[in-house]
Amino acid sequence: MAYHSPYKAPPHINAPPDQGFLWNIFQRVDKDRSGVISDSELQQALSNGTWTPFNPVTVRSIISMFDRENKGGVNFNEFAGVWKYITDWQNIFRTYDRDNSGFIDKNELRQALTGFGYRLSDQFYSILIEKFDRQRKGQVAFDDFIQCCIVLQRLTDVFRRYDTDQDGWIQVSYEQYLSMVFNIV
């Protein structure tokens, strides 16, 4: 089975930081003092360790997960969840970045996704690296690793809706396929 027990979300690794610490960070990131951190403000505040802007698609994905009121950003309470989410992903990334290069190569990605419960072919890991390697180095940076995992989980969730017997195989019409894809993009 290709997706035995996929990883749902980062585990709770650290105790949450104190509210005063988070409030100071929130105020620094909320450049326009609106009380809501937008995707562009969050992108400017995040570091992927490569001196390049954090992947805007990843930022929008994270904002959408925590923006409960669909306001296009996160308030302070939601920001606390974003902080924990990103911190947990950093810890996961560091765990699988075995050579401490600041990137996840194909073998490290295989180890991470296998650890999350995925069973994928070597060829598919090459596809994932090609898709999520924005810097064309044969490896993925922190922000792209998060995006890879988010996309893989979303695709798996949609696939599972059709794979009623959980055998890793589905049969869908063209319109069902399009519906599946449009639910993700």
Radius of gyration of CA atoms, rounded to a whole number = 18 Å
Helix proportion? 40-55%
The chain-level structural class is: mainly alpha
The topology string of helices and strands comes to HEHHEHEHHEHH
Write structural notes for this entry.
The protein has 185 residues and is mainly α. It is 55% helix and 4% strand. The chain is built from 8 helices and 4 strands. The longest helix has 21 residues.
Provide key terms for this protein:
4% strand, two-stranded antiparallel sheet, 4 strands, 8 helices, 185 residues
Topology overview:
Blueprint: H1 19-29, E1 37-38, H2 39-45, H3 56-66, E2 73-74, H4 76-96, E3 104-105, H5 106-115, H6 122-132, E4 139-140, H7 142-162, H8 174-182
Antiparallel strand pairs: 1-2, 3-4
Helix pairs in contact: 1-4, 2-3, 3-7, 5-6
Short description:
The protein is mostly helical and 185 residues long. Helix content is 55%, strand content 4%. The strands form two sheets. Strands 1-2 form a two-stranded antiparallel ribbon. Strands 3-4 form a two-stranded antiparallel ribbon.
